[in-house]
């Protein structure tokens, strides 16, 4: 769909012929094709029905991922959705007979909610509204016909909660959110599905925690704090009274797990769990047995700490049976006697297994990506180095097999967000690039989440500055270690990673050989002006974190690559989804047009059925073929 026209400047995307030349540029011979890394899995996304008698999964139908249902013990599966324009974005069982799922249109992220019976009958569009985005508040596992969702139907900026009947489509608004000056940005229910807690923005930069003892009571303020302080309610104690489990960094640098009394407005009892190096935000529990089972946290990879012997024993047993892989409980029956298990590693998409706790039988259901042999894939190694101002920066280095001791061409891969972090696991981009002979360096630069409040805040108003220095220092670390050829280094990233790519070739123009910008920000001013309406409540927060267009004008000018294209001197490939609601297509158009005005031909791929990243299989194939052709041309 590269040639489809849009209003405005329609001459920017490169011609299909020019892009095809890029696709054909990689002259190497490889055991694995682009399709091997990026094709849709044959089967994935397995879930158990609440009664444990069926499992559901996603599988391709006319190149789009759709939902199938299969009775346990039988071979035949029933396809219950038939979408051909877009992948199913996610789904869950609602009772033993009905499936609820979401899907957007062309990557616009205005997700709509649908329901269908497990035999494919009674399909219902539950949210038949145009340009309305929904969010799930509570799937109400104990109420077969009801869920609670948020919708910005009345005001595009504000999400209000509705109780929705998934059989009839009838809905009832259960609270208001009609004050743009103090919008509610999060709702939380108790174990009975009663709406009890909300987080409200005040002045755009402070957060007010409000609480009510009963759903028909008025909300009362618990406390107000700056957005930099994290107070994330997780779930109530099992008696549904006033005690809530919270991930909090109040008075601390790292987030920990505590109990909090919403009436007395204080932490109660002993701290449940903390880690000296990273934030802890995931607390697990057994809904059936009503016990806290453990926490999960991430250092260089995911770890567990169990409070509950039964859950700990189950994990140990599964890890023994499935040695060599990470093991996760993908879903369970309501009585917690049957489980769907998922394995994975840095080299494999892993497999799904069905585990019957009563019989201790573990049955393999499917390999998710059996066409890739693990022995052919590279290892993702944790690394760390010191930034120029003394911070410890963590990241990951993946090297081509057999070339670990050579100075090999390298692709620097900064993550998106930027308030996010890279983690260890299966990354198809990384495996593709190492398979093609490149090192890959992923850096959790300052501003990345998970390493505490101080490390996160050190990235505020540092786009293109110390955040970028951390990436640059990583490149120099590779050079000093003799890991890379300093004359063959590319930088590639998406979203904020796309910004870091443009900043890299703009502000350190001699460091990189070429670059690929994928749905990246190019101009800090226009980025702020084109955010989706439901981000508007966070605008003052964005000003604090990125920069204010008036009071930080000079800084934002200095760090907007689109305003300094005269400094760019290496080849650049730009890729964009036309429907991207987060990073408007104008961000890509600006950088391409400015460079072309200087007589520099910038290959530019636009997909008009995509948004913030490519979901459709055929678009992924075309992009990554063009990417490897571009890298082959300039690094090999």
End-to-end separation? 30 Å
Average pLDDT, all residues: 95
Can you summarize the main beta sheet? 8 strands, mixed
The CATH architecture of the domain at 378-635 comes to: 3-Layer(aba) Sandwich
Percent of sequence in beta strands? 25-35%
The computed structural class is: alpha+beta
Return the CATH class of the domain at 378-635: Alpha Beta
Strand order of the largest sheet: 28-29-31-30-32-33-34-35
The CATH superfamily title of the domain at 378-635: Alpha/Beta hydrolase fold, catalytic domain
Query: Percentage of helical residues?
Result: 10-25%
CATH topology of the domain at 378-635: Rossmann fold
Number of helices: 12
Rg over C-alpha atoms, rounded to the nearest angstrom:
25 Å
Outline the structure in words.
- It is a single chain.
- The chain has 636 residues and is α+β, with helices and mostly antiparallel strands.
- Helices cover 18% and strands 34% of the residues.
- It has 12 helices and 35 strands.
- The strands form 8 sheets. Strands 28-29-31-30-32-33-34-35 form an 8-stranded mixed beta sheet, sandwiched between helices. Strands 1-2-3-4 form a 4-stranded antiparallel beta sheet, with no helix packed on it.
- Strand 18 and strand 19 form a beta hairpin.
- Helix 1 packs across helix 12.
- It starts with 15 loop residues before the first helix and ends with a helix.
- The N terminus is likely disordered.
How would you briefly describe this protein structure?
The chain is α+β, with helices and mostly antiparallel strands and 636 residues long. The chain is built from twelve helices and 35 strands.
